[in-house]
Amino acid sequence: MTEQEGFRPSGQQARTGRCTLCGNRAKLTQAHVPPKAAFNRGSFAWGGTTADNRLAYGRPRLGGASRYAHCEACRASTSPWDDEYIRWAHCFAGHLLRSQWKGQRTHITGELTDVRPGRFIRAAIAGMTALTPKLIDSHADLVRIVREGTPAQPPEGIRFLAAIAPNRSPAHVEGSHEALVVRMSQDSDSGEWATAATPAVSAVIHFAPFSLLLADRQLVDSFPHLDCTEWLQLGVDDIAKVRIALPIVDLPRTPTAPVPIAMLQFMKARA
User: Fold this and answer.
1) Residue 88, in any domain of the structure
2) Statement: the pTM of the whole predicted model exceeds 0.70
3) Helix 117-131 to helix 140-148 angle, to the nearest 10 degrees?
4) What is the distance between the alpha carbons of residues 100 and 68, in angstroms, rounded to a whole number?
5) Assigned domain for 209 exists
6) How many domains in the chain?
7) Rounded to an integer, what is the distance from CA 199 to the centroid of its chain?
8) Is 257 part of any domain?
9) For 90-112, b where at least 16 C-beta lie within 10 A, e where not — what string?
10) Poorest-confidence range of 22-31, 50-59, 113-122, 225-234?
């Protein structure tokens, strides 16, 4: 695994098992996280040109995550929503590469018109369920809202956070739902050590141009990302105008080996 490839789940996978979207035991199909057409094909140079001088997006040797996770029925109903995720990915990538302010901005601000944010967020979280098979057990309402695609009041306990990952940011795709992060601190006066446990981030898709997190509500203030959970109040076909101010964040590079997201700190960046 190279630095460019980042981290992605690995290990033996069963092609028959429990669907992470509906909970039924069935023959499973592969979920690509992020979608292949969102620069996850692994055969392009980011911002390079092809032989016929067309602009091509992507990264060399980058594959994201590919997991057997969704039954055929759930795949058929949710995978068409990837079109909005792909549309946003190309829009933001093109904006980052061609802007006259490239490399100067700490936020991407503006107004998205005629977009379907309810579709985008469900495509993202549907992919995240492939990384977090136990999400359906602990947050059944959230998974149901994603699966059904209809407007709903988002659950309070878990939040969807979004930011922009700059060009060439190291990719990181991970699921750590229900894991705990134990941090130790030493009192400067007494010298005594104290430990504190907090939930780990449930799922991460840090894959340019997006940095997307699914996290326990108590963790929201720990990240520079914007809370976009309210997009679930829109259905997958609802057209909306959305004002955004998405921060640009990056992850430190780990040249020797991938590091779990719980041990990394997002840092402010420019793009």
Assistant:
1) yes
2) yes
3) 130
4) 42
5) yes
6) 1
7) 18
8) yes
9) eebbebbeeeeeeeebebbeeeb
10) 50-59
Give the alpha-carbon dihedral of 60, 65, 70, 72, to 10 degrees: 20
Count of Cβ atoms closer than 10 Å to residue 184 Cβ: 8
Q: What is the number of helices (H) and of strands (E) in the chain?
A: 5, 16
Residue-level pLDDT at 261: 58
User: Residue 207: which H helix or E strand, with range?
Assistant: strand 203-207
Token representation of residue 158: 């878990």
* Residue 180 exposure: Cα atoms within 13 Å on the Cβ side: 6
Task: Using the structure block, give the residue that is written with the tokens 């030493």.
Answer: 186
Residue pLDDT, tens place only, 3-29: 333 444 444 567 899 999 999 999 999
- Output the CA torsion sign for 5, 8, 14, 18: negative
Q: Is 137 a residue whose pLDDT tops 90?
A: yes
| Residues spanned by the domain of 139 | 82-268
Q: Give the pLDDT confidence of 209-219 residue by residue, as tens digits.
A: 999 999 999 99
Tokens coding 42: 């692994």
d(CA 155, CA 141): 7
User: For residue 46, is it within any domain?
Assistant: no
In the sheet with 203-207, reading across from the earlier edge strand, the strands are 172-175, 203-207, 210-216, 158-164, 226-227
Residue type, 161: L
pLDDT at 177: 81
Q: If residue 6 lies in a helix (H) or strand (E), which one and from where to where?
A: none
